[in-house]
Each structure stands twice: as C-alpha cells, then as structure tokens.
C-alpha cells in the first residue's frame, strides 16, 4: 500500500499539475486523511450511462460526451494547488487525449483497485463493484460481499487488495489443501482476513495438524468446516487442544474425533466453553465420565446458550423425571428446543403414553420424542393423527 | 387456482390480516420478528428480480462497450431482495407474554386494517385457568408464592355466585358510564340495540364471565370482554380467589376468540411460512368481508373479497 501511495505522490501529482490528468481517484477515507493526498470529486451524469445502447456509434458518441462532461464539470480539490490545477485543466486539450493519458498512467503503475471512477467515498461495495475487476472476481466465486460490510475494517482491507496479485494465491492455496470450489465463497465470506496471513504461517499450521496424525482428508475437512482454524497460531491451537485433553481426560484418538466432529469448538470463545463445562458439571450435576461421553457425542452443546441448555435439561430431568443415564443415552433431547420437547411430552402425557423406561412395555425413546416432523411424531410415536396433535397444540 | 413463482407478484399480494396461534411464553415482539423473518426468507427463495443492466467498458479503447448484468445490483453484493424489515407488520392488539391463543396481525397494507380492527374494539373471549390455594407476587403461577390458603370449602355454587356478581357489577358500570340510569327508558333503548359498547378503549369491560371447568384446586373461567389486558385478567383471578375466601393465582390465559377470528382459523407455529400465510390471508379476508358491519368506519376497499381483482391489480 505504501508503495502505491509513494507512486501516487511522486508520479501522478506532477502529471496532474502539468495538466495531463484530471480524474477522480477513489481512495479509502482513512488513507486520505493519513497521507494528505489528492481527492477530486466530479459529479458525472449517470443518465447518459443508463440510456446507453449497444449500438456502436451511439455508444462512441455518448462515451465521448460523458468523458468530456467529466472533465468539464466542477472539481473540488483538497490539494493546495487546486485552483491552479482546475485552470490548467480547462485548457483546450481534447478529452480523448487526456483519457488515454489516464489509462496509460494506470497501466504503467499497476494501481490495483484505484480505478477511474466518479463514486464518492462509500460504506458499501456496491458503489465500486462495477468498476473493480477484483470485486467482480470475488462475486463470481460466490462471496457474499454485503456480509463483509457489517464487519469493521473489512471494506478498507479488501479495497486495498488486487485479486490476481493479493487474493488469487490464497484461493489457489485453499483449493490445493482441499477446500471444495463451491465452498470457497462461503469460506471467504466468513473469513476475509485469511488474505492477511503469510504463507509460511499457513503451512506451519497445516504441518502441525499433520504432526498430530490428521491425514489429508481430515485436514481439508477441518479447514472447510472451520474457516477460522488457519488464523490461529500453532501455539494457541495446541493450548486449546491441550485444554480439552486435560479437562476431559481424552486420548489422542478422542481429541481427533472431537476436532473432526466439531472443528468450530476448538476456536470458539474459551470463556464460553469453560462456563459451559461449569454449568454441565456443577449445575446439572454430570460426573466426569458422563461429561466425556457427552462431549464426544454432542460437542455442539458446549457452544449453546447456558440458560437455555439448563432449562432444557431441568425440564427433562425434573418435570419428565428422567434419570441422567437415559438423558445421556439420547443426547438429541438436549439439542432440541424446549418447546418441542414440552409440546410432545404433554401430548404423550394426555394420551397416557409418556413411558420412557426401556424395561417396561409401551416404551418411547427420547430420540423418537424429538426427531422427525410433527406429522411423523403424531403417527409413529403417539399413534394418532396430525389433526389430533394440532388440536392439542391449540389447547395449550 | 393459479401457481405463482415470481416473488414480486407474491409481494404485491401480501396485504391483509392474518391470525396466528401465539404460544405461551413468547413475546409479541419476538413473534412478529419470527413471522417477518420467515416471510422474507421464503420470498427470497422464489424467483426474484434479476439484476439491472449496466454498461461496462472492457478496454480503454472506446468502441468496446458491453451491456451486462450490473454487479452492483447482484444479491451477493447488495444483499437479499427482501429483508425482514421490508415487511410492515403490526398487531391488532397487544397480547402479553403469558397469554397464548389467537393473535391478529396486519401485514403490509393490512396494517391499516389491523388498526381499524383495534378501533372497532371487537369482543375477545378468554379461557383463564387459575389455581386456588396460593397467591404470588406476579399474580400468576410463575411468580414467588407469597401466601398459602385452604380451598376445600370452595364449591362450584360459590364460584358461580361470585362470578355472577362480577358480571352484574360490570353490566351496571357500563350503563353508568354511558350516562343513563339503570331503570330509565333510555337504558332500555340502549339495551335493545345489543351489547353496550364502551365509549373509549381505556377501561376493561366484562360482558360475560362463567366457570367452565371446576376441578379444585384448578378452575377455568370463560371471560368475554373488551379493553382487557393480560395483567387485568391475572388480577381478576386473584380477586376471584379472595372473594371465595381463599387465594388464587393465574396458571394460563388462552384467547379463544378475537372478534370474528377464532381458534380454528389460527396458524400454529410450524405453519408460519409463506404458503400457509397466503391461505390464511384469504381466509381472514373472507371472514372480515362477512363481518364488515363490525368495521363500519373502514374504507370498503380494505375489506374487498375478490381474489381475481387482487391478482389483476398485482400484475398491472
């Protein structure tokens, strides 16, 4: 970036003062303030553009007109020599000559995203995307640009980068390590800051996984399911894997199983995970062995909202009066929403079918209680019709 | 019957009133948010508007100009075509968190209709369940118990007597508020016109209250009223508890009828998606058209019941 700024200062400013160039450069606001460089706003009429047809001659004329308009229109300039500049610019050089000069300058110093454009500083990509080849390539990859706008700093970060120079090597790298082509857009939507990492670091992080006996398939699965994995330094990842191994007394194979089952858990907020462990252990009263079994079967529970998890567990344990063993044998019940368990349990209760003990006749497994649609549940588990279940739901 | 797959046509047709079944424990605001979120998601899955055209200049030489789809108008760049907040959605009357049952929403142009419906002050019917023997700080069974009492002396006849006295007291107040004496000719003429309508939307009025289930300590009463709110019904149960020389807390409030809309018209939580919402919109339109006498102040165009005309309007 700094080199581009230097180029702008050294080469372009003299060109402008000599009256060859008078254009708008879209420069991120923060950069403008920092480097005190030129910013010329020209309000070009967009009407001429939209009415344009594919007819070659008319396009030629219109294009000429718009170019002339853009050079004739009023300029606002932050540069100290602005008055002199505009005077010089209004001299009688033909518009075409100047247009060629601009493109020559741009071609000479690969200016990346700094395209000739009339857009004012903006908060979204939509203003730039039709003029920027880099952004268009990202759209073709399937990146949700509008999702980037919500995140702080991404707009500036991406606009400073050129696709073929700064992004393509990373995309090639991701593809090579096994991120499927149709997942690349999703990957980059979630983690645009991958372009910031240096390749040596990324390779070291992959080698770390290899050293921990994750094969090629496993590594590509981890990186695909958790786009943030490669952002974490080897030391941090090692600490986190160590935390899980020590807290739950996991074997090496168990840790690999956990990582493959829920790669997001490893890079999740550590405070949240520790609190979840506390809630499950102290508030819900699970012992070490039960915790380990639960972690390996439903690691997603550790990322859930604590209060909701607790309410759900308490409903099953205290209201439905089910012991820990039955709940832990069917951990699906802890991942489904409370109202779902409640509605279905009350329905079974009204039919006197709420029998969750496997040793007794008329057994209904907790898994059968929560999986499937309402229609499937009503017919297969409650042995009634959907309409009866709907009527019951309207009596709650 | 006609199949429509274009989102803009669906959007233009998405006007009117719908009636949903509000689950207990969900706030009105959360319900609204879920509903408009579902509508926006479903609309985006239909055929949306393609991006606008844009003139691209591929090279610096001027003759190479191409017209193509604008990237600036691509859903990947500007976001989905329909967002939850694009849907105007307002409830006909606010329902509290602990209340379940019929809940009427106006969608897009129907939000005006929802407003008219509120101003028409339709009679609401509630099934309120109370539990005797406890009194809580919030008047419902979710609060902390502040008092316990016996309830074995309460019989069905005592309950009925108390409820009848409440109903009589309310009827008397109604005539008083209208400014007529109970024993006058004016009161008679007011009464023969039908239910006495309250002059404003402030004070709750009970038209009828009766016990429909009595199984101590639980009892269920059916309340037909206007201008009520959740805390009013809770305190009503508390007062009944006091009047039968015991205490009572409210365990559930279920709205079974809102003016012309009753519980069989209401959409359950799993039916809150576009297809069911459209079915419900036309059902509610038919119901409102049938009961247009209720909405005497409403412009007739709002309660139009002609599906064909609506479809033509949306196409033009």
Automatic annotation (TrEMBL), chain A:
Gene Ontology terms: cellular component: mitochondrion
Subcellular localization, as worded in the UniProt entry: Mitochondrion
Coiled coil: none
A Pfam match: mTERF
Listed SMART domains: Mterf
InterPro entries linked: MTERF, MTERF_sf
Source superkingdom: Eukaryota
GO biological process: mitochondrial ribosome assembly; mitochondrial transcription; regulation of DNA-templated transcription
Entry annotated with the keyword Transmembrane: no
Family that this chain belongs to: Belongs to the mTERF family.
Record protein name field: Transcription termination factor 3, mitochondrial
Lineage: Eukaryota, Metazoa, Ecdysozoa, Arthropoda, Hexapoda
TrEMBL record, chain B:
Pseudouridine synthase II N-terminal domain location: 99-227
Protein's GO biological process: pseudouridine synthesis; RNA processing
Single annotated GO MF: RNA binding
Domain of life, source organism: Eukaryota
InterPro entries named in the record: PsdUridine_synth_cat_dom_sf, PsdUridine_synth_N, Trub2
Family: Belongs to the pseudouridine synthase TruB family.
PANTHER family, sorted: PSEUDOURIDINE SYNTHASE-RELATED (PTHR13195), PSEUDOURIDYLATE SYNTHASE TRUB2, MITOCHONDRIAL (PTHR13195:SF0)
Protein name: Pseudouridine synthase II N-terminal domain-containing protein
Organism this protein belongs to: Gryllus longicercus
Lineage of origin: Eukaryota, Metazoa, Ecdysozoa, Arthropoda, Hexapoda
């Amino acid at each position: 970036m700094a080199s581009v700024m230097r180029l702008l200062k050294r080469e372009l400013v003299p060109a402008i003062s000599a009256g060859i160039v008078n254009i708008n450069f879209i420069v991120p606001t923060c950069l403008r303030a920092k480097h005190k460089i030129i910013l010329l706003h020209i309000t070009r009429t967009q009407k001429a553009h939209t009415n344009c047809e594919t007819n070659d001659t008319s396009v030629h004329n219109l294009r000429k007109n718009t170019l002339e308009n853009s050079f004739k229109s009023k300029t606002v300039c932050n540069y100290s020599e602005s008055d002199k500049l505009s005077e010089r610019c209004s001299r009688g050089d033909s518009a075409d000559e100047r247009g060629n000069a601009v493109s020559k300058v741009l071609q000479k110093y690969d200016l990346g995203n700094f395209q000739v454009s009339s857009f004012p500083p903006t908060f979204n990509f939509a203003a730039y995307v039709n003029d920027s080849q880099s952004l268009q390539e990202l759209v073709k990859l399937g990146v949700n640009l509008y999702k980037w706008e919500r995140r702080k700093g991404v707009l500036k970060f991406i606009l400073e980068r050129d696709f073929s120079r700064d992004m393509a090597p990373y995309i090639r790298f991701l593809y090579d390590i096994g991120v499927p082509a149709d997942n690349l857009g999703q990957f980059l939507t979630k983690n645009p800051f991958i372009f910031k990492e240096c390749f040596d670091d990324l390779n070291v992080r992959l080698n770390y996984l290899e050293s921990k006996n994750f094969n090629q398939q496993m590594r590509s699965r981890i990186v695909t399911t958790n786009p943030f994995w490669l952002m974490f330094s080897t030391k941090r990842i090692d600490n986190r894997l160590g935390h899980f191994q020590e807290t739950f007394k996991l074997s090496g194979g168990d840790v690999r199983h956990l990582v493959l089952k829920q790669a997001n858990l490893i890079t999740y907020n550590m405070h949240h995970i520790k609190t979840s462990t506390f809630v499950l252990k102290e508030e819900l009263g699970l012992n070490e062995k039960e915790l380990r079994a639960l972690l390996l079967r439903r690691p997603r529970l550790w990322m859930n909202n604590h209060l909701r998890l607790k309410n759900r567990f308490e409903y099953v344990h205290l209201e439905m009066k089910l012991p820990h063993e039955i709940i832990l044998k069917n951990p699906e019940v802890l991942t489904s929403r409370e109202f779902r368990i409640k509605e279905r349990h009350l329905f079974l209760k009204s039919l006197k079918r709420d029998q969750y003990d496997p040793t007794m006749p008329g057994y209904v497994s907790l898994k059968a209680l929560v999986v499937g649609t309402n229609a499937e549940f009503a017919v297969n588990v409650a042995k009634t019709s959907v309409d009866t279940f709907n009527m019951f739901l309207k009596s709650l | 019957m006609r199949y429509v797959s274009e989102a803009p046509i669906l959007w233009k047709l998405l006007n009117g009133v719908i009636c949903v079944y509000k689950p207990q424990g969900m706030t009105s605001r959360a319900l609204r948010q879920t509903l408009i979120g579902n509508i926006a998601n479903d609309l985006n899955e239909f055929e949306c508007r393609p991006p606008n055209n844009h003139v691209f200049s591929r090279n610096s030489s001027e003759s190479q100009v191409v017209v193509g789809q604008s990237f600036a108008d691509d859903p990947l760049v500007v976001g989905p075509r329909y967002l939850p907040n694009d849907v105007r959605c307002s409830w006909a009357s606010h329902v509290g968190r602990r209340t379940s049952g019929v809940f009427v929403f106006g969608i897009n142009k129907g939000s005006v209709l929802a407003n008219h419906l509120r101003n028409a002050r339709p009679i609401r019917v509630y099934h309120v369940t109370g539990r005797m023997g406890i009194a809580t700080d919030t008047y419902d069974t979710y609060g902390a118990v502040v008092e316990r009492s016996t309830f074995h002396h309460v019989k069905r006849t005592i309950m009925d007597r108390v409820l009848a006295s409440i109903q009589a007291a309310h009827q008397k107040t109604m005539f008083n508020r209208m400014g007529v004496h109970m024993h006058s000719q004016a009161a008679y003429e007011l009464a023969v016109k039908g239910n006495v309508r309250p002059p404003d939307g402030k004070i709750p009025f009970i038209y009828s209250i009766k016990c429909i289930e009595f199984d101590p300590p639980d009892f269920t009463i059916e309340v037909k009223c206007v201008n009520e709110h959740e805390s009013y019904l809770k305190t009503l149960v508390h007062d009944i508890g006091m009047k039968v020389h015991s205490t009572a807390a409210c365990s559930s409030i279920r709205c079974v009828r809102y003016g012309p809309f009753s519980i069989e018209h209401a959409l359950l939580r799993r039916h809150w998606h576009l297809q069911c919402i459209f079915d419900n919109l036309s059902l509610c339109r038919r119901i409102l058209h049938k009961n247009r006498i209720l909405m005497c102040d409403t412009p007739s165009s709002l309660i139009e019941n002609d599906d064909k005309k609506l479809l033509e309007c949306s196409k033009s």
